[in-house]
Amino acid sequence: MTSTAMTLSIPQHLPLFPLNVVLFPDSLLPLHIFEDRYKTLVNECVTDESEFGINYFDSQKIHSVGCSARVKEILKRYDDGKMDIVVEGTRRYVLHKIIDAKTVYQVGDVTYFDDEPQQQNDAIRMRAIALYNRLVQVAFRGSVQPIADGNLKPQLSFLLVQKSGLDLGQRQHFLSLRSENERMEILVKHLESVLPLVAGQKKIEAFVMNDGYLPR
Fold first, then answer.
1. Domains along the sequence of the chain with CATH
2. Whose CA is closest to 69, among 96, 95, 43, 87?
């Protein structure tokens, strides 16, 4: 058994990049930066070696729970300042409000958080790993590596969820949960229900095209 501990911080100011994606801690996400305000944001973060926040924006609202990101790699710079980059998720936070920061991009007042302390359920963890490995074998056919049965990575659920086919609303809810056991239970139920459906070619293609996260 392993345990996790909840950590809180005082509110901090964080540059924001609302997107129609959900970023998870340790996930890798490719982004094409084309708006001037976000060119400025990314260049400042690269220069200062600082982070910015990604909140899921569903065209109606910015969801309050987000994940901070650091620029892991600049894949390409274009003559007009556009960029292709890869970002890596770092820490989760709650966005309390947008502040008047006099910047071209939005800045949020955020508080970082982690999981609540608990003993991890090894049985549900092993079940989730087994189901996930079956899914990636059928749907991704070698392009995504299986997870070792004895993997004890803290918050392993954030790795498993990236290739599990949850929709954006489900991913946002998943990001907000403060229990690794609860996240693993959700994955088990989801994978048990979806695996029988992945036999069809169209369903497989939908899985492969759905996530956007880079394999780790």
1. 3-113 (2.30.130.40), 120-210 (no CATH)
2. 87
